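FAQ: What does the model actually see?

It sees only this:
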Amino acid sequence: MRKLLGYLFTPFHYFFFILLLLIFHPLQWISLKLGGYSAHKKTVDALNFFLVGTYYIAGIATAFYNKYDLPRGRSIIFVSNHQSSLDVPALIWYLRKYHVKFVSKIELTRGIPSVSFNLKHGGAANIDRNDPRQSMTEILKLAQRMREYNWSAAIFPEGTRTRDGRMKAFHEGGVATLIKKVPDVLVVPIVINGSWQASRYGKYPLNFGQKISYTVLQPIEPTGKNPVEVVKEAESAIRSALQQ
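And it is asked to produce this:
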């Protein structure tokens, strides 16, 4: 029954999702030109609020859980597992007050309305996974922006999303570099659960009635710790939470 409902309602989700991307593309351009970073960010926040709203059209509910008082005015590295393409708009919306910039693959900076514009002009690190030197340069530029503006970063250290919910091993390099280059940064693990099941049949149909949770885990103070060990600690915390 859930799959059948997915066949019925998923097209409406995609229609409004794509429509929003088309509408907000020129709005991002206008807001950036007329109001700079602040206006552009508000436009992006609004876009992702509505994008997450389209999930509900497909019967997919999201919930964000955070029992910790995360600091503002201090850079945070949000480290998370990655289960589907549904994760990014939700995290942008739920973490909006922390000025989160994603570490993303460079392919997404081309040809996608709204998404490509934001990645190119919103402060993200857009890495070429086939070019280690370019990737490191992008990470270092992001670290500089984090130091200058107290921005935060979000990174999926698995490198790609899982198709079956089984978490892949984390690659430490990007997170470890940010920890080294951004003084007083805080590392915050987030566990994503249920997202892969929403896409268990692929992009069509979405799994009607699926619930996705985004849960903030115990923050990690990296001061005095080996950055690689901090990444392993975050990975262990996320893996343990998934198993529960």
